Amino acid sequence: MKKTFLKVSALALLALTAAGCGQPTSNGQLIGDQTRMNYRAPLPIGMVFVPSGTFKMGASDEDIRGRNDATIHTVQVAGFYMDATEVSNQEYRQFTNWVRDSIANTILGNFKDLPDGRQVLDNKRINWKDPELQDQLTQMYVPAELSGWGEKRVDAKGLKYHYTSFDYNAAAMHPTESEIKFVNDFVVPIYPDTTVWVRQFNYAYNEPIARQYFWFQGFNRYPVVGVNWKQTKAFCDWRTRYWQSDREKQKFYFEGRFRLPSEQEWEYAARGGRNESPYPWGGPYIINKKGCYLANFKPQRGNYSADGGLYTVPVDWYAANDYGLKNMSGNVSEWTESAFFGGSYNQQADINPLVIYNVQANEARDKPYLARKVVRGGSWRDVSYYLQVSTRDYEYQDTSKAYIGFRCVYTQIAPALTNRRPIR
Fold first, then answer.
1. How far apart are CA 167 and CA 188, in angstroms?
2. On the CB side of 305, how many CA atoms lie within 13 Å of its CA?
3. Could you tell me if 219 and 298 lie in one domain?
4. pLDDT tens digits for 164-211?
5. Which residues, in sequence order, are CB contacts of 4 under 8 Å at separation 6+?
6. pTM for the complete prediction?
7. How far apart are CA 134 and CA 75, in angstroms?
8. Is the preceding omega at residue 284 within 30 degrees of 0, hence cis?
9. Least trusted range by pLDDT, from 169-178, 198-207, 349-358, 414-423
10. CA-to-CA distance for 376 and 263, rounded, in angstroms?
11. Which of 290, 323, 302, 309 is nearest to 383 (CA)?
């Protein structure tokens, strides 16, 4: 009986190894799972790769103001892609235009049927100059008689992006609870607050820049401002889904998500491999040997235009650091993912540290300090102290400023764990 059992088992094994027309056979050897295709990670356009590494994070001994809040410590960071420049007006308008068109297509009932019977939105480009379409989309407009400009205009306040996000960290901490409890729902007004140019500068004539800065093509390559932290998060979600949708149409794999950098990732990238230097270009000076300023900030005793820009400048001005990143110091400060707490450096992990706190409306009201998010890099209105890569600052997550923008990062974890650039 035992001999017969062995004979049947051997025949079964032979059949298994020979099965699968066109599939490689194992010949009884360990060859790995053959049901998955080989994978080459995609290259995000406009981003540069920051390799994995270790650096000394924190304020120098000469920084009396920051040394207690940003103590020097060693941090390890996994590699990631980062936008080579700050997100520009032109890039952010792609987001607002997509949201505007998707709302219009929803109102017009432009849906398409999928093979599985589901219906999805067919987000077509809308011709906003078509009078017939304007009549069908009346609810999206502010009537001329109610508009301060005397003409019918799309109501920018009505452009809202709706998305859901799964809180993986909370779910991991409560593995016995239903995953649906950790799905968060967000509805975010996404149009930048263009009035920041007027509200934040009293007794100044900034109306022309307020009216033109975001939409006029002359400012295409300037950094978007007037966006709060919640809006940058919505942009990252849209950017992820927008790219993922295209790759799925082509039946390509997709990994990772666009997001804001952590405070640690931002400083590591800004240093550009110069571990002991105060600025992205090295230092200790903020001008080169020709006497030219190396960033857009507030030089001397408030001579804003001495560095070449009265306000912001195009995102690709000034030389890149050794990682290929431009304007990591100056031009506009940048939102990060990290929550701001004094002394938080002493409570973090030393590998990919991140302090986060997602603040709800009632918490922001009762405990406003919980809504503080770290901003980095200094801006066109800041003195040189804020250009230092170790300098910490913060702003409240629901506020927008004329001097705060952002850039995204994107992690492909498999190639990131090696200290080499991905092979293309």
1. 18
2. 1
3. yes
4. 988 888 888 888 888 888 888 999 999 999 999 999 998 999 999 999
5. none
6. 0.88
7. 55
8. yes
9. 414-423
10. 8
11. 302
pLDDT of 9: 47
Between residues 271 and 175, the one the model is more confident about:
271
pLDDT at site 375: 97
Are residues 318 and 398 both part of a single domain? yes
Residues 137-176 as b/e (b if ≥16 CB within 10 A, e otherwise) read beebbbeeeeeeeeeeebebeebebebeeeeeeebeeeee
47: which strand partners?
83
Q: CB burial class (10 A; 0-12, 13-18, 19+) of residue 74? A: exposed
Contacts of 263 (CB under 8 A, 6+ apart): 336, 337, 338, 354, 355, 374, 376, 392
Q: Are residues 67 and 81 in the same domain?
A: yes
Q: Are residues 223 and 308 in the same domain?
A: yes
What is the rounded CA–CA span in Å between residue 304 and residue 311?
Answer: 7
Closest CA to 223 of 47, 87, 46: 87
* Together in a domain, 221 and 291: yes
Q: Which of 25-29, 144-148, 222-226 has the highest mean pLDDT?
A: 222-226
Residues 118 and 96 reside in one and the same domain: yes
What is the amino acid identity at position 179? E
Domain coverage including residue 330: 47-88+190-416
Angle at 173 between CA 169 and CA 176, to 5 degrees: 120
With contact defined as beta carbons under 8 Å apart, do 121 and 102 qualify?
A: yes
Strand ranges inside 86-137, DSSP E: 111-113, 119-121
Report d(CA 154, CA 174) in Å as an integer. Answer: 44
Q: What are the beta bridge partners of residue 233?
A: none
* Residues 284 and 406 both lie in one domain: yes
68 assigned to some structural domain: yes
How far apart are alpha carbons 336 and 384 in whole angstroms? 20
| Pair type for strands 73-77 and 53-57 | antiparallel
pLDDT at 206: 92
124 confidence band (pLDDT: 50, 70, 90): confident
Same domain, 67 and 113: no
Model confidence at 17: pLDDT above 50: no
Listed residues 101, 119, 139: the one ending a domain: 139
Of 139, 154, 177, which one is at a domain's C-terminal end? 139
Q: Which one of 20-24, 33-37, 139-143 scores highest in mean pLDDT? A: 139-143
The domain total for the chain is 2
Contact 296, 331 (CB under 8 A): yes
